[in-house]
Amino acid sequence: MTDEDRALLDSLAAQYGEIAPFEVPGFGLVVIKSPEFGDFDRLVDKLAKSDKNTSASSAMREFALSCVVHPERSKAKEILQKKPALVAKLGARAQELAGADIEELGKD
Known about the structure:
By secondary structure, the chain is of the alpha+beta class.
């Protein structure tokens, strides 16, 4: 990671709080933040209503893109076109940033 990348991550962390950076070979850094409540709400609603007209994958792609803070949205879409499985990784990590990884106390 370059000094420029570190400075970018520091700046994004100052602006958004907890972030998650990913180094995508051939494309560089992709950085996500925790989703807003409305973004998460839309994901759950779309997954619950998915049918032949709306797919779970498009719902997850929209959710993942809503969390990307670097690079700009058009570049992020380009990356996801070339690396479509990255959507699952970004979406899963965004859910963790939103609290999905919090463990229940006393659970064995």
